[in-house]
Amino acid sequence: MMKTMLIFQNKTIPVYLTDTNKQAIEKLSAVLNRKLTTGKNALKTCLKSLISVEIVGSEATLHSYFERDTLTISLY
User: Fold this and answer.
1) What's the superkingdom here (predicted)?
2) Could you report the average pLDDT of every consecutive run of 10 residues in the chain (76 residues)?
């Protein structure tokens, strides 16, 4: 597993990947920024307390400060 960092909402978020897919990071950034404005409340709550992201294949698990707010979203 590889670790990289992503700047999101002026915070540095660790992102863990199973492979070195640069497109996944770019997609993640675009999806997170889009979901911040168009996402449902549960997703917005998760994004506000985001502490790390784990990407496996085409899915990203968003880990938040509160475990109950953790969500998995599709990148594609």
Assistant:
1) Bacteria
2) 91 88 85 91 92 93 93 91
